[in-house]
Amino acid sequence: MDHPKNKDKRGRGQGQSRDVQVSKALSLLLRHAAEKEGLKMNAQGYASVSDVLNWRKLKSLKVTFPEILHAVDSSDKKRFALLHIPSAQPTESTTQATTTPATPPDAEHEAGSIVGEEQPATSVLESAPATSEAQQSATDQALSVKDTDPSNFLIRATQGHSIKTIDAASFLEPLSLSDESKLPDTVVHGTFHATWPAILQSGGLRCMGRNHVHFATGPSLESVLAVHADDSAQSKPKPDDSRVISGMRRDAQVLIYIDVRKALKAGVPFWRSENGVILSEGMPVAKSGAEKGEAQKFVSLDFFDVVVERKVGLGKIWEHGEVLQELPETLTKKGNPKGRR
């Protein structure tokens, strides 16, 4: 399909490009606001593109179906997944697909029931792609189909959900010690100077309103340490950064490297999303002393391998359970940088 080229156009929203406005609105709806806004969504997070286009914010922006497709196709971090599931009775606005459908024919009925009036929003599309490779293939196929009817497409966010009815096990790939060949070499969480003391004090990483803590699969510890060992590092690009597409903000100041094998052995669940983000909800940690209430879930400090400060050149600040150096107050009191995609 032909997609609009909006990269140079500016619209409302603090000087953001039209593309960014559409992408952020989609992320807000599909990750966080679907329940509040009454959008029908199944347990895997799929919603009808037709319903999505009828959301008030997208209608106010006058977002079109081609712009939705462009948002999926152009996302540098592969934030969205798409399925093409033609209806049993094509309408005048529907042209029959010239390629193999993204899902088997028996999935068409199931998908229709997901977004239908009589089915619960928590239905699961059993025939949906089960691996990251299959989902990317399905998305590519959906984008190539010559079909202009948005009701024949399902869309979802690939990760980042705070909606509690989304079932991670139904669409994320679990990591397991039973097949170590599929474990990433690097699992790293990016954070900021101002946040690191709070992470230490709390005992680990929490989901902070989302369903999972997010991790990237790079840059590798070796590449980061090599940069800081070089006096001329300020003028060099950081190795591996270009291949990390999601899971961590590019301006992260502190990198927390996780011993994923140790964590898995202890029972901490980890998953991989279609866009390569490693996710974990952590494990419940009982509150101690006078604290009351339900145990919170953490990815505990016990599973932190090495922590590196990479912006001002401090290097290792934590290793194997020991604080090697404290961050200066001049860094921790600055607050976090404003959000960047």
TrEMBL record:
Broad class of enzyme this protein falls into: transferase
Comp. bias regions, Low complexity: 87-101
Example GO BP: tRNA splicing, via endonucleolytic cleavage and ligation
Keyword DNA-binding: no
Biased composition (Basic residues): 1-12
Residue ranges with Polar residues bias: 120-142
InterPro entries the record matches: Ptrans_KptA/Tpt1, RNA_2'-PTrans_C, RNA_2'-PTrans_N
Domain of life, per lineage: Eukaryota
UniProt keyword annotations, A-Z: NAD, Transferase
One Gene Ontology MF term: tRNA 2'-phosphotransferase activity
EC number(s) given by UniProt: 2.7.1.160
Catalytic activity from the UniProt record: 2'-phospho-[ligated tRNA] + NAD(+) = mature tRNA + ADP-alpha-D-ribose 1'',2''-cyclic phosphate + nicotinamide
Region annotation (Disordered) ranges: 1-21, 87-145
Entry function: Catalyzes the last step of tRNA splicing, the transfer of the splice junction 2'-phosphate from ligated tRNA to NAD to produce ADP-ribose 1''-2'' cyclic phosphate.
Annotated family: Belongs to the KptA/TPT1 family.
PANTHER family: PUTATIVE PHOSPHOTRANSFERASE, TRNA 2'-PHOSPHOTRANSFERASE 1
Protein name: 2'-phosphotransferase
